[in-house]
Amino acid sequence: MERRKIPxxxxxxxxxxxxxxxxxxxxxxxxxxxxxRETRRYEDKENKIEEEIENIFTDQIEGxxxxxxxxxxxxxxxxxxxxxxxxxxxxxxxxxxADEKKVIVVEKDKKQMDLMAQTENYxxxxxxxxxxxxxxxxxxxxxxxxxxxxxxxxxxDGIEDTHxxxxxxxxxxxxxxxxxxIPKRRAASINSTVSKVASGALEYMKIAxxxxxTDTIKKxxxxxxxxxxxxxxxxxxYFEQDLNMPIAIVIGNEAKGISELVRKNxxxxxxxxxxxxxxxxxxxxxTGIILYEALYQRMKK
Length: 301
Prior knowledge:
Number of strands: 11
Mean pLDDT: 85
Low-confidence stretches: 49-58
Distance between the termini: 124 Å
Strand order of the largest sheet: 7-6-5-10-8-11-9
Shape: extended
Structural class: alpha/beta
CATH architecture of the largest domain: 3-Layer(aba) Sandwich
CATH superfamily of the largest domain: SPOUT methyltransferase, trefoil knot domain
Helix content: 40-55%
Order of helices and strands: HEHEHEHEHEHEHEHEEEHEH
Number of domains: 2
CATH topology of the largest domain: Alpha/beta knot
Number of helices: 10
């Protein structure tokens, strides 16, 4: 009898071991599912934080000159943040102007300001503003009518670098351009970096953001505006072409230049002489050269 009980006891132990292993598998699977759920929740939270940060960055102006220009433009400002203890030089001017215009100024320590800033050199001041409002193409044409001038428009076909975009806006404003047209996709949009590089010019420049550059060009041509492309293989140099007319000058992407479809819809094109070993210029430099030639011709006549 005792010999029979021993195998039975062993079989019972084996069954218990099997149940333990099965239970452990269930626990492991539940734990794995729980970990996956936690990972998804964490990723969702991270994505939400990134979206919120992106929204903050899009709606803030950084740098002393940019904030002073913003205050002088009388645009809406939600709040201005300054680094605690940073009350020297132009910061005092900003605080005084903000006080006069009843704009709230908040002091934060440097670590908090560094976290808020999108640019490295924000100079101890960040202004929070309502989201940037793009203009319509018609608004740009109305500026020309109000000034009693021939339309002078700049079209940017895929400028991707925000520093280039900011520099171009600044140059365009000083050259008397009535407005700038940019595409919605695959191109830089207005953010705090653009605003800082533009050094206040953004407050005075109409910028329209369109779905399709080619369609926009066709509509401009219907209104009697000539389209001038900038191409490295153009037949004429920029100073050989008559630019004193209702005109929209097209500047292409930093690497690829003007897209083929846009190129086909240009009425004519111009190029800049390249006498050195390097055969291309920075987009913002090229823009400045062409725009000021157009301005010179307008002033001359």
